[in-house]
Task: structure prediction
Amino acid sequence: MARAVTTQRKAINTAIAWAIGLLIFFPILWTILTSFKTEAQAIADPPLFLNFDWTLENYAIVQDRSDYMRFLWNSVILAGGSTLLGIVIAVPAAWSMAFVPSKRTKDILLWMLSTKMLPAVGVLYPIYLLFIQLGLLDSRFGLVIVLMLINLPIIVWMLYTYFREIPGEILEAARMDGATLREEILYVLTPMAIPGIASTVLLNFILAWNEAFWTLNLTAVDAAPLTAFIASYSSPEGLFFAKLSAASTMAIAPILILGWFSQKQLVRGLTFGAVK
Amino acid sequence: MAASRPRSLLRNLNAKIAAIPMILTALVVFTGGTIWTVAYSFTKSGLLPRWQFVGLDQYERLWDSRRWLVSIENLFIYGACMLVFSFVIGFVLAALMDQKIRFENTFRTIILYPFALSFIVTGLVWQWLLNPDLGIQSVVRGMGWESFTFDPLYNAQIAIYGVLIAGLWQGTGLIMVLMLAGLRGIDQDIWKAARVDGIPTWKTYVFIIIPMMRPIFITTLVLVASSIVKVYDLIVAQTGGGPGIATEMPAKYVYDYMFGGQNLGQGFAASTMMLLAVLIVVIPWAMLEFGGRKRG
Result:
């Protein structure tokens, strides 16, 4: 922490840290830059850095060929829908664990968290069968449910840790004033927990947005989100790097922009609430 | 008192009801699904699940399969290297940042960005950066070092390390930020006391700071370990398991047998083995984390 650090030392540390940061950011930067090149420039040897003719044609082609907007829309619905549904189910559960704990609360939490650690392949087939039976294969509704289920343990856990920081007396005071349970949760607890809920929503949105295992396996065409869209470009014969970069850039842009404007929530969320 | 009693009973009842949807979904879907998979791993299921008991046949075939053995070996290499390197790099970066740098919040965001990307994007980007004709190798050769060779994805011997690089790139930021939070949680006076006693900085880190950060180390360990066992998307996007079977992973084995190989029983047996492996990691952690707290 603040061990007395001289200005000079601080400048050096800053320089080193930023060099590392740049190194880490470079692959992303390179992908974004390449998306504005022509295919020929993208594989030019030696690689071109900034001195190329900037073009938007890749974006036009990608949109033209594979109806990017449909995949994007699916991603928004899947990530948004599963997050919303998850929060609706998790808030009451986290409330009950944080404010009306029973002897078993800790056990339930632990067991719930451990389900998140189990390899998803273990439940893939049963869910697949269930989906066939219910006709949910390749439907947005079915995937919203699945994505919500797999992230639910994390949502509940994070909300629980945030709720526990809120003094129970405040809720009690609301109850004394005659608030019903619904009002207590909706109008007293939720507003106070907004920062925590925001981090949870952001984390869950990103997790659902990036989820590939389930979306690749349970969708074909209709409900396929951006992960499936990009994965379709990964075939070895499809060496269209500029277009691939354009597609990747479009897929990651929402996350990068969202993250940039909510840095605090992003850090808090992505570290599963461990960083306050 | 008498009036509040039924009310608190009602409240407890409400609390139970509030938690039911979550408990039901976790119970039915995860526990139910897992038990189903384990049960069917002892059957002869082929194209469709069939309840024809064959004992440990599937497991014998599994452990006779060269592809499964390669998958396990890869998982161990990837897992061990991932743990060691990501912890070392993550901790060193965190210690560096702990010295107070400018624009720290922005730096933290940038270093977390890779973690916010899907494995699919990571896999593709690194497939490209490690391509000898387009990526790092061609850049270094272009700068005049003609004999420079760096093509891990095209060399079956070291392909798994190519995957490791991408995995590290994606995961190290998270560890750094967690470690930083741990370092920040350490009392200032410890540093002062160490300095007064003339203990060198590195010794303070190794013998005082790191042992004090045990809880955050354990949390990080569990997060990283559980993500290692599940590694699937990265392989699919970056190498597709190749060259040959050089970068196969257990999760991919399971998937391929369930949906591609028309041999469900094999897939179930393999996923049961993965389940066992995870339990070996999770149970000791659970005992440490939760068993200990109850006593204390």
Remarks:
- The two ends of chain B are 32 Å apart (CA to CA).
- Chain B touches chain A through 109 residues (CB under 8 Å).
- The first helix of chain B runs from residue 4 to 40.
